Amino acid sequence: MATAFNPKTDIPDLTGKVIFITGGTAGLGAEATYQLAVHNPARIYISGRNAKRAAVVIKKVEELGSKSTVHFIELDQGKVSSVKAATERFVAQESQLDILIANGGIMAVPAGLSSDGYEVQFGVNHMGHAMLVKHLLPLLQRTAEKPGSDVRIIFLTSLGFQFARKGIAYDTLKTTQDAAVLGLWIRYGQSKLANIWYARELAKRYPSITSISVHPGVTKTDLVGQLSLANRLFVYATNIGSMVEPHEGAYNMCWAVGVDKAKLQNGHMYEPVGKATKRLDAKPFNDDEAAEKLWTWTERELGAS
Q1: Are the CB atoms for 160 and 189 separated by under 8 Å?
Q2: Which of 164, 246, 285, 304 is 20 to 30 A from 156 in CA distance terms?
Q3: pTM (2 decimals)?
Q4: Among 34, 45, 118, 188, which one carries the catalytic annotation?
Q5: Torsion region of 303: left, alpha or beta (phi above 0 gives left; psi -120 to 50 gives alpha)
Q6: Of 45, 192, 198, 206, catalytic
Q7: Which InterPro entries does this chain map to (predicted)?
């Protein structure tokens, strides 16, 4: 369980590192910011839509006595144009990026569409991060070319990917997909499966960068708190005795930031804390062709944007 990890002693010195955390203004992203900041990275960038929340995070980092600077970048993950603008602002002021944590996301929300017309959970959880990666890849690659570099992309996924037993429904991704029983969970699972497959393809296509996905554990954050009563009860009932506090939910991504690179298998998924999952061994989840199809489809959708 998460308690086997101690962020004070198990995260190494991060001096000189530049870190970008999506959804870093609250929840697990904020917790990861606190835990990483005290290990001396040069700069941490946190993205989100709420500047006031970001200010609270930045103030707390200062109160922790960290010498790292934390910067806020406004970014709406459900809007490709916002993601592109955010990456342009970031690249204009940074010459390196060592760690990208694709943390921000939504869970089991009512049926809807993102600003760009995708099923909303897929639009935010996958397309937003895919756009981010697309525009930050040149900088990530340049950083990876430096002697002694160790560049990582860490996607937050979820065991909820197992709801997507039929894979990704490409034919209806530009609809609300509001048809099936447990539909909001199937839609969520589809977006989390996409995170896993996208990390796998990145590892294959850009081997100089370590790209993995991590499950944080079922965590008591606003993602659960904002669910309907019926869905909160569903989460609680199916995770009796296994839910963790927000600071523990950040452990697995912080482990992924600091663990010896030799202990990571590029493209794999890890459960808390640092355990390579075996849940992807069977189809439809262990499917290299499906992962490649997702990459091709995503590249086509993003096009020249």
Answers
A1: yes
A2: 304
A3: 0.91
A4: 188
A5: left
A6: 192
A7: NAD(P)-bd_dom_sf, SDR_fam
Query: Do strands 275-276 and 269-271 pair parallel, antiparallel, or not at all (unpaired)?
Result: antiparallel
Q: Does the active-site annotation cover 192? A: yes
pLDDT over 90 at 238, yes or no: no
- Residue 232 carries which side chain, given as an amino acid letter? R
Sheet with strand 269-271: strands edge to edge: 69-74, 43-48, 18-21, 99-102, 152-156, 210-214, 269-271, 275-276
What amino acid is encoded at 227 in this protein?
A: L
Residue scoring higher pLDDT (103 or 240): 103
CATH of domain 2-302: 3.40.50.720
Q: Whole-angstrom Cα distance, residue 155 to residue 163?
A: 18
Q: Tokens standing for 27?
A: 């929840």
Low-confidence winner among 132-136, 146-150, 201-205, 245-249 (lowest mean pLDDT): 245-249
Please give the backbone phi and psi of residue 148, each rounded to the nearest 5 degrees, phi first: 75, 10
Give Cα separations from 220 to 226, 246, 249, 254 (angstroms). 11, 6, 8, 18
Distance CA 137, CA 265 (A): 20
Identity of the amino acid at 260: D
Catalytic residue at 118?
no
* pLDDT, averaged across the chain: 90
Tokens representing residue 221 in the block: 């954050």
Higher pLDDT, 99 or 240: 99
Cβ(271)–Cβ(252) under 8 Å? yes
Choose among 215, 208, 235: nearest CA to 138.
Answer: 208
Calculate mean pLDDT across residues 22-39. Answer: 96
pLDDT at 241: 40
What is the 3-state composition of the chain as percent helix, strand, coil, each rounded to the nearest 5?
50, 15, 40
